[in-house]
From TrEMBL:
The species this protein was found in: Novosphingobium aquae
Location of this chain's protein in the cell: Cytoplasm
Keywords annotated in UniProt: Cytoplasm, Glycosyltransferase, Purine salvage, Transferase
Protein's recorded name: Adenine phosphoribosyltransferase
Function: Catalyzes a salvage reaction resulting in the formation of AMP, that is energically less costly than de novo synthesis.
Family: Belongs to the purine/pyrimidine phosphoribosyltransferase family.
Amino acid sequence: MTPDDLKQLVRTVPDFPAPGILFRDITTLIGHGAGFAASVEHLAERAAAARAESVAGMEARGFIFGAAVAARLGIGFVPVRKPGKLPVATLGIDYALEYGSDRLEIDPSAISSGERVVIVDDLIATGGTALAAAELLRQAGAQVDHALFVIDLPDLAGAQRLRDAGVTVDALMEFAGH
């Protein structure tokens, strides 16, 4: 299936989570066996081209695509977790959200110094979470210069924010608006 075919499998839910928002729901894509497999294959090809040595994905939907891409490539997966979820000493970063703040954590022993880590997530909007993940992985010693997404919402400029931070961004599809 082509990325254009896959785009047809993404459900748009109007006015969620607030009026005026068009929520791009990947549940319908991951529920479609051939569509999910094709999404993973497209992402894996791009991660291989970026010479990924491991894949990192942010909780929670980044786990779905990131772990599948890592398994497809036969490389490790680094879970970027919400706080308090890892049973070992962690490396963490606080970052700003549109209305408040959040925190991400990783097990720093999951990354070797200089390891080429490719970030994989379902969607890039404003880029705050992906930027924080890239910074956190870099603090742990990773080389992070590629991020892959199923969906880009270019009107929210998150991909450009990542590019400005030295990260090449690629997405399987784009949706105008937010």
